[in-house]
C-alpha cells in the first residue's frame, strides 16, 4: 500500500501514543553470490517493504516462523545492518541519513540484546570489564565512576557484586542473559530490541527474566521491541503484536485483539498451532497448515502466504494485498480478512 | 512408608531403581540417580524436565547407548517385554534397536547421513531389518514418506537431506524410525528445533501413528505445551530423579510436587496476562555438588530442616501417582491437615 494511505489512516487514530520510532517501507535484501566469478545470482528478500510504529514506553511483540525476517528488521531498524531502502525515524530524525558520528551518539539510545546469551559475551573479559568497556567507549573516563556504575547495573539485574570479577563461562544461561541486559542498560537507552531473549532458557528461568524486563521497563520508561517465536511469552509481555511471514508484516494489532480475533489466515494458523498447556483442550480442532515456508529468494506472486492459505483465490496469486487498516490500531494484509 | 507404585500387569518397559553415572575428570555426575517408571502398551509417556535433568540419559540408558567411558549404568534394571535389557549382548541389543525400539533424536540433520539420498537411507534400514530386496525397499520408502506426510514422496526419495527443510528432515527421521514397525518409539525433543506450525504437523502425525499402529511412545520434551497436547502420562524429572509422575490430567490440574507446581505457575498464559509471573528462584544444582537432602530444597519455598538433611522417599498418592517430597509423608510437621488427602 502507498505510504500516503498508511499515513492518512494513522492520522485518524486518536493520538494518545507518542511515536518513538517509525519504520516506513523498509527493505533489506541480502545478495546471494555464487558461480565462477562470485557474481550476485539473486537476492534473499529478508525484509520486504515493512512499515510500523513503536510507541514510547510500550512493548511491541514481533512473531513469525524462523527465517521470516524478525531479526533482520530489528537489526536494520537500529542500523546494525544497512537497509536496502526505506526510512526509520527515531524521535523524528531519519537515522539512515545520519553521519557515522551523529549515529554514534544515537547508539546509546538504542540497544540490541541478542538471541544467544552464550555467544554475545566476550569470553576473555570478566563481567565487570565487559560492562566497564562499554561505559569507557561512551565517554565515562573516571575509573571509580565506572566501577560504581557497574556495581549499580549488576544490582539492577539481580546479580551480586561478587559476580563482577567472574567470567562468562562461570555463569548459567539465565545469569548470562542478566549480564547482557545490564550491559544494554549501561548507557540509559530509550529503546531496546530484545531478540529471543528467553528462548534459550528453561521455563523456570524464563519467568525470572521476563519479570526483570518488566520491572526495568517501568523503572526506566523503556521501550521494547520483543522478538520471539514463543507466542505465550509475547502475549504476556507485549502491548501490541506484529506478525511476520516471509519478509512481510501481515498483521499488527493490540495484543488482546490479535489473540482473540486474528484477521489474517496466517495469524489464525499460527495461534491454532501454538500448544496450549491444558490437556482438556487437546482435541479441539486445530488448523494444521500444510507444507513449509517458501524460499525468500523467490517468494510466491501476489500474497506470499497463498501457497499454504486455505482461503486462497486467483486474485491472491495476482494482486498483492495491501497492509490496510481494518479497525482502530489493527492492520491486516489480506484480500479476505477473517471475521 | 516407602510405598512403591503398583505394577501394571503388562508394561512394555520397566525402569527400576536405575542409576547411570558419568565418571568425569571433575568428579562423578549422577545423571540418573534412582529412577523408576513404566511405559504401558500403546501409551504416550512424556518425560519433562529442565536441561540437564537427565531426560536424554534416561532414553540412552534404555537404548544401551550410554557412551562408556565415561558413562556407566551402575545400578537398577531396565526390562523390555519382561526381559532385562542390561544382560543382553551387544549383538542382541543391535537386533532390538533395529527391530523393536526406535529412537528419534533432537537434531535431524546430525542423524541423517548427508551423502546418501533419503530414500536409500530408509531403504537401507528396511533391507537390514526386514530383509527386503532393494526394489521393494524403495517402494516401501515412498509409502513411508507418504505416511509421514511428505508431499511429492516419489520425487523426495531421490533428494539429499540438505535439500529438505527442517520439518521434512524430522519427518524422514520418523519414517526411518517407523521402517521397522517398532513396538516402542523414543522421541527425544523431536520438535524442539522446529517452528510451531511444523511442530504441530509432527505432533499431529505422532498422534495419528499411535492410533494406527498402537506403538508405545516415550516423548522427551521440556515444553509443557507439547506434553498437554499428546501425553497420556507424565514423568517429571529434576536433577536426575523423578519427582512426580501421574496421568496428564492430574499433573496439569492437581500437581503435587512443589517443582511441578512452580513450573506450571511460571508459564505465561492468557489467564494471568496481567501482573507478574510466578518464578522458581535460583538455579538447578550443580550435579557435582548436589544438596544432601531433597535436591529441590534450595529453591523450594516449603523446605524444612528435614528436607535439607534427608532424601525424601517416593510416595504413592491417589491411584497412579507418585511424588518424591516430604510434604506428603507423616513425617511432615505443621500442615498435615492441608494435605489430609494423602
Ligand atoms: N547475512 C545474511 N546473508 C544472507 N541472508 C541472510 C542474512 N541474514 C539473514 N538472512 C536471511 O534472511 C531471512 C530472514 O532472516 P532473519 O534472521 O531475519 O529471520 P528470523 O525471523 O529472525 O528467524 P529466526 O526465528 O530463525 O531467528 C532468512 O531467509 C535468512 O536466511
Ligand atoms: N557424555 C557425558 N559425559 C559427562 N556427563 C554427561 C554426559 N552426558 C550427559 N551428562 C550429564 O548428565 C546429566 C543429564 O544430562 P541429559 O540427560 O543430557 O539432560 P537432559 O535432561 O537435558 O536431556 C547432565 O548433568 C549432563 O551434563
Ligand atoms: S490474500 Fe488470499 S492467500 Fe493471502 S492470506 Fe488472504 S486469503 Fe490467503
Ligand atoms: S521435600 Fe521439602 S524441599 Fe523437597 S520439594 Fe518437598 S517440601 Fe520442598
Ligand atoms: Mg532471529
Ligand atoms: Mg536432552
From TrEMBL, chain A:
Domain ABC transporter, residue spans: 21-271
Pfam families linked: ABC_tran (PF00005), oligo_HPY (PF08352)
Transmembrane segments: none
Keyword Nucleotide-binding: yes
Keyword ATP-binding: yes
SUPFAM superfamilies found in the cross-reference section: P-loop containing nucleoside triphosphate hydrolases (SSF52540)
One GO MF term attached to the UniProt entry: ATP binding
Protein name, UniProt field: Dipeptide ABC transporter ATP-binding protein
